[in-house]
Amino acid sequence: MRRQPIKRKSMSTKPQLFMLHFAGGNCYSFVFLRKYLESHFELCPLELPGRGKRMTEPLLKSKPDAINDLFQQIKSLRKATTSYVVYGHSMGASLGLYIAERLEKTGDLALALVVTGNAGPGISKQKNRYLLPEEEFKTALKQLGGMPYEVVENEELYQFFEPILRADFEIVEKDNDLKAPVLNTSILALMGSNEENAGHIDNWKNYTHSSFKGRLLEGDHFFIHQHSEELANYILKAYDRSLVL
Known about the structure:
Blueprint: E1 16-20, H1 34-37, E2 42-45, H2 63-77, E3 84-89, H3 91-105, E4 112-116, H4 134-144, H5 149-153, H6 155-173, E5 187-192, E6 212-217, H7 228-239
Parallel strand pairs: 1-2, 1-3, 3-4, 4-5, 5-6
Helix pairs in contact: 2-3
């Protein structure tokens, strides 16, 4: 079937897209999606302290603190006259679930939560990587993929990024008392076909009372870089199901 042209949103009615980065990421982590999405959304890439534009702020190391920080950012950016979507990759997906719940409790529901590179709560068996000795930590980073060779092999670059990565891994992996919520927001989950937990992608359906869709795209944990246009189309579809993509 021939694809129909995607309707352009006027500047005054663009929905907002809040983008939550992965471990070690920052507000520039989704620049590769900009050309596909900026005509349709007001892009709002967020970042945790200790990196990017927030380099001078102390790193956070607890999930509740990270959730609250990102939630407050969204609240300060929200426009009451527009709808919005939350998108997160890996760590961003984990945090996005709780942030979507916080927003629901204020009566401001997202049109969709889009999660990538993550099979949802209770699936990953990775624990305490943030405590690994340096060489073992480097090995874990290489196995995860997505980390530029220069960062791992260049000692100066590695020493710069290591505290950020360890802090983010601690946010995701450290045991806490947070119970995973079940949303009234629909969830779209995408994973790389070669990811360790790709077979558990449907786990996300347990965390919404609304609709759920899960899709596998060829690739590893950072498949998003090889499927940028397709990922953008899925995000658009999650926002407006009337679009033929």
